[in-house]
User: What shape does this take?
Amino acid sequence: MKNWSVYKDLIAKRHHSTFTSNLLNIWNKNLPIVSTRNHFNLETGKLSLSRGIEDYDSFYVPGLNGIPCSNIDELAIYIHGVWTRQITAKEQIDRTNLSLNANGYNILVIGFSWDSNTVINPTGWDIAKSIAKQNGPKLAKFLSDFKAICPNCKIRIIAHSLGAKVVESALITLNNNETWKNNSEYNITSLHLIGAAISDRAASKNSPFGIAIDNIVDNFYNLYNPKDNLLQGLYIKTENENPLGLLGLHKDEPFPSNYTELNVMSEIPPLRMASGIYKPFVDNTISGWGNNHSGYIGFRGVNGKLKDDGAINVIVRDWKNSKK
Assistant: This one.
């Protein structure tokens, strides 16, 4: 990717992409979702006056929506990245679930859906970053509420792209919470970043995020990919630094004690249409293994069925190994 202007026409087409009838069926599924949609102004990034800094909405979530959590001992929370509409977020939650099931791991998957669908240009990127950071206290409040009601349920988090900024902000918030700092039952069992669109120094052991990782998370994983098309192009051009999801933690930075990272380029085949529909903004730049920024959670065929699990098999392996 040479610059933003090259993709002006492609960006316009992407906003008008329509889902196939098979994928539209996902919209009607009652997926468990924690949502902060419409909490922020997409043009300014400012929080709505009718919303608080910790507000969130929940739908079909055990413990919070009249659904008991007594029979749930483990769940995964999937957090999407930048430029993701509400229906696209539901598709990604569903695809994550399909890939987990394909690897024999059948647990409840909850989505965290936030206002990331800003204008696709440098200004929109900056606004999305601001909104992601402001979602940290909201995610932290949900995690606290859920743990208070379902204390025995293990929480696993998978965060894609700019979803890593939401997680970074949430963990820093939780690290300032005495309950999370002093009660080991409130720890997050595992946290995987995939294609993380945050600074490659953000998770340093001595950073606020790194300190929070040490204190709040049992097992932290950064799955990076040196051929990621969007991180290689737009992120570096805009931020003038490497993202954590491209080459891993900066080599001058010390790892938190529970930090593991792995190159997953070979887990992402040179396939287009990760969601089952063509997205020019992503798919026009795919030329080899690892190129598809949308492929970490797997790939659908045009029939809506899963045809590849992306890097989810690595995540499942990590989950299973941590139980041994």
